[in-house]
Amino acid sequence: MANEAKPCPCDIGDRFDHEDCGQEVQVGHIKAYVCKPSVKSDKAVIVIHDIFGWRLPNTRYMADLLTTHGYVAICPDFFVGQEPWKPSNDWASFNDWLKTRDSSKIDKEMDVVLKYLQEQCGAKKIGVIGFCWGGAAVHHVMLKNPHLKAGVSNYGVIRFFEDGYSLLHPTFFIFAEKDDYIPLEQATMMEHSVLQVTQLEQKLKEKCKVDYEVKIYPGQTHGFVHRKREDINPQDKPYIEEGRRDMLNWLNKYI
């Protein structure tokens, strides 16, 4: 079993030194960080944060990265004002905390954000990416929301979607080879984690009627795409860059 004292793989990782390139705005009943490219674009990407919330510099860095590639990027507060998880919190309370922040109960917020992007930003083609908690949320909206074009799920927890294979849109699943917590209830052995990812891929092959890809990145651990700085983790640099490049290429292909 996963460490009961710490039932989630998330730790803060490398905290990026990042100054916001965008601004915080009110979008319906929630707040959001919005960043726009210098040249007007009708393409947008919704960035779904991890358990550390919409103000985590690492996640905003990902939004800014998207903007440099021509997308309007928005990172809404999908916790709707509730406190994000803090590294100093007692991990024994994590499961109770998580119950009030269900990654499959974000449809109302997604509708508000989509309306904002369409009406206020002129977006006609919209995709979504997410990390950890947000990766699971991407999996959810790829099964339900008809208004999105494509999605990228970064190390989203598979156990939340045991029957979630009939995707509506092209979806790219990024996993780390040494992520011992996908799904969380499995033994913390690399082989078990990869086996579960393999099972996901097999089910998608049987049931999914749109394009998808499941990719495992060698030697990487949970959070590597947005929680590791390549300049201080040189051995991971090729995979961090590859993960980000793959994410962008997928969005460019389908949006």
UniProtKB/TrEMBL annotation:
One of its GO terms (molecular function) is hydrolase activity. It is found in: Cytoplasm, Cytosol. The keyword Metal-binding does not apply. One of its GO terms (cellular component) is cytosol. Pfam families: DLH. It comes from the Eukaryota. The keyword Cytoplasm applies. Keywords: Cytoplasm. Its main location: cytoplasm. InterPro entries: AB_hydrolase_fold (IPR029058), CMBL (IPR042946), Dienelactn_hydro (IPR002925). Residues 30-254 form the Dienelactone hydrolase domain. Belongs to the dienelactone hydrolase family. This is Carboxymethylenebutenolidase homolog. It comes from Crypturellus soui.
